[in-house]
Amino acid sequence: MQESRLFKIVYYLLNKGQASASEMAERFEVSVRTIYRDIDTLSSAGIPIYAKTGRNGGIRFMNGFVLDKILLSEQEKQKILSALQSITALNGGNEKDILEKLKALFQVNSENWIEVDLSRWGEKKRDNEKFELLKSAIINHRCVRIIYANTYKEPGQRTVQPLKLLFKARDWYLKAYCLEKMDFRIFKLNRILQLELLNEYFSPISYPEQKIEESQKYTPVTLRFPKEMAYRVYDEFDIEHIKTDAEGNLTVTAHMPEDAWLVGFLLSFGTKVEIIEPVRLKGIVAKVAKEIYEKNKT
């Protein structure tokens, strides 16, 4: 509590320039004696603050004082402001007020360099509400009940302990402990069809990072694309995984999970992708493509 008040005193004086002890005591709802003790604490920390007596007296900083000369370098201040800007872009909450206060406190300008929209096209309200609810559940350690559409079955109900939100490869995921499976799981946010915050609390635990590697089986996949697909290839794959030949055609080699998602992903390229390796994947994709044809032919 004292640390918070000390920060507020510094911010208050930086903005106002000078104030009496009684004025600050009233503002911060403490005694005048407590204010003087706080001033002594700040002074002991190396901040040049002093009380001037007389008619025009009051508590103030020495002329020319700026906080960054004592505590933070220019680079450190910019890092703090940039980090807070990214949080503000995600939340749009009270962090905006904190950001403005820190700009004044540091006496620097910081460009508003980032904007983040968590929603899909046309789904802004619902997607942002889902994100905010999960954020609240994680911070307050509350269980949630979800209806989840997985890869292989009809949507099913799960009760989970939400641990962390993860952004990876253009999608948001929820790291959680699933009470039905009694194990750690990762859920894609877009596949969470319904979400209910429960009045059940849990003790915070850490998601074991090795679980990601154990649960995902990666296969080296080599694909060839014509040059007119370059726009999408660079959207989907890292440039280090792409080789271009003299004609501009592209060959991609990457480790990918060999599952239903991969089949659907490859089919999304239509006739503009050739599977080189693994050979068995060619047969799987061809079989699914034939089934699609048989179902939809006229």
TrEMBL record:
Superkingdom to which the source organism belongs: Bacteria
Keywords: Transcription, Transcription regulation
Keyword Chloroplast carried by entry: no
InterPro entries: CBASS_pafABC_assoc_protein, DeoR_HTH, HTH_11, PafC-like, WCX_dom, WH-like_DNA-bd_sf, WH_DNA-bd_sf, WYL_dom
Annotated HTH deoR-type domain residues: 2-61
Gene3D superfamilies: Winged helix-like DNA-binding domain superfamily/Winged helix DNA-binding domain (1.10.10.10)
PROSITE patterns assigned to the protein according to its UniProt record, in alphabetical order: HTH_DEOR_2 (PS51000), WYL (PS52050)
GO molecular function terms noted in the UniProt entry: DNA-binding transcription factor activity
Protein name: Putative transcriptional regulator
